[in-house]
Design brief:
Blueprint lengths: L1 H20 L3 H8 L3 H8 L7 H11 L3 H4 L6
C-alpha cells in the first residue's frame, strides 16, 4: 500500500512540474528515452519510476530528483 502511495505522490509531483514547464508526456518521453506507454503508466502512478528515470526526468525538467520525491516518507 505504501509503495503505491509513493508512486502516486512522485507521479503527481512530476505531472505538476510538467504543467509548470508546459511540457507534455510525449516531449518528456522523447527527451528521456522512456517509452511513452511506460512513462504514461508511471505518470498515472500505476508503476514506479526507478532512480535512473527520476534522474532523467529531473534533468530534463531541470528539477532535482529529491524535489520530485517531496511528500514521500523516508
Amino acid at each position: 500500500m505504501q509503495a503505491r502511495r509513493t508512486s502516486q505522490t512522485v507521479a503527481a509531483n512530476i505531472r505538476e512540474a510538467m504543467t509548470t514547464t508546459g511540457t507534455t508526456p510525449e516531449i518528456v518521453s522523447e527527451a528521456t528515452h522512456i517509452d511513452l506507454p511506460d512513462l504514461t503508466e508511471r505518470l498515472n502512478g500505476t508503476e514506479s519510476f526507478d532512480m535512473a528515470e527520476l534522474v532523467a526526468v529531473g534533468g530534463f525538467l531541470r528539477i532535482r530528483p529529491e524535489t520530485l520525491m517531496k511528500g514521500v516518507a523516508a
